[in-house]
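pasting input
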Amino acid sequence: MLELVNISKYYNMGSVNEMCLFKDFNFQVQDGEFVSVVGSNGSGKTSLLNIICGSIEVEEGDVIVGGVNISKQKDFVRHKRIGRVFQDPSKGTCPSMTILENMSLADNKGKAYGLAPCVNKARMDYYKEILSQLNLGLEDKLHVRVGALSGGQRQAVALLMATMTPIEFLILDEHTAALDPKTAEIIMELTDKIVKEKNLTTLMVTHNLRYAVEYGSRLIMMHEGTVIMDKSGEEKKNLSTEDIMGTFNRISVECGN
Amino acid sequence: MTLLLSVLEQGMIYAIMALGVYITYKILDFPDLTVDGSFPMGAAIAVVLIDKGCNPYLTLPIAFVAGAVVGILTGIIHVKLKVRDLLSGIIMMTGLYTVNLRIAGRANFPIYTCQNIFDNNFVNAIIPESLSGYKVVLVIFVLTVIVKLLLDAYLKTKSGFMLRAVGDNDTIVTSLGVDKGLIKIMGLAIANGLVTLSGCMFAQQQRYFDVSMGTGTVVIGLASVIIGTSIFKNISFLKVTTSVIIGSLLYKGCVALAIRIGLESRDLKLITAGMFLIILVLGNERKKKVKAC
């Protein structure tokens, strides 16, 4: 179980622009849950992910995974068991290296990066196999630099790279937002497939309410640093985009937007 | 002929330094000014050890290790103490001036009579008399090729892939559960090791050490890297390391030509700076054109 306990997070501490995002924020994710996170800009969705991954520090509170407090762990240590895909497709891959080199790099995650050759020819068939399930023709482009691929192709490679090795958590930060609707659909279906196959505990931030409703086992809506809607199980299944949109509009009106 | 030989000799020695600069500037995106201090440090180590009777070939690994330590220090200043990249280099470069004086003991240190990696019983024995005029260039060629092949091999290892990744996109290094700071420090260590190695060879080719011989080294290195990588950018069968070596030779050739057509050797640094400026501006032109398309 992943727990956030009494988290407090301030931005611009000590200046006139000081802003409190989270105050005594508590949140739990059960093992194997696929949580979709929706909410307006500035509601704390991405900050929530960054706090879990250790990319930003918190003023107070703890991050606990399986009963162990990991608040003091550095970000790179936490990432050993986290796979992460970013909104920006270029963040998940190395542009000047080929698909094969990128895949080899990711395939070694969790092991030592020593002086053995990185590209293992014996693994090439496996890379081709997982690339071919994308139906993007990438399996024939193993020696093409990733920088020469389109955003959608890159994001697909990034998703495969993030989930290639055994991980416990998958963190998706609007990972379909920069893609065209068709590619986004492919990526989303692939995500769902991987999450189910590997039984990953997943947190997905998205602005696409349809994805939030269709995919995942739980849906939360964030607003000004609090969870204002939390549906799982049967409740989540019966949820429609209209329901979420209704709540969304209501809070927006309250804020005067 | 002498001119060509000296271009080849110095061009290849400086090429090893340029390979180091390639690691920091191109791979790590870190303009490392430490180079101006670590290059003469290699020279200082060479002359002192040879003067003390050390085997000339032993000076090469010693210089490399000393350079690596210097690189680690630059890395720690930048990564752990969070000083900006340029400033970390300037701090190290300034400090190393004194260190180099301390190592050599004085500002000038000739070793004209001693054996060195180019002129010793071993080399004199295996290179026939008829080729004795070329023995310096032959030895340099062999050493440069060894360094290039080792670097090529290293860049294919897991550790080498990490080094390339950290310059390309350091977010992914964190995502892969690796400390990007450590990788940067490691890259700086290898780079400065190569630079010091190059300085060590340079002192033996010139047969002297001078405390100010490092001034402008980083500019020469950057110029070689930029010439090499931009001219041969579209030739895919050429390894980048090869391009950098050719870049260094071309650069030395241009400088030699400038001196040949009437400029004096005291104008050298100005030529160096001027050429670097031209190369940078031309490089920018190309980028703009690409953007306009």
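fyi The mean pLDDT of chain B is 91.
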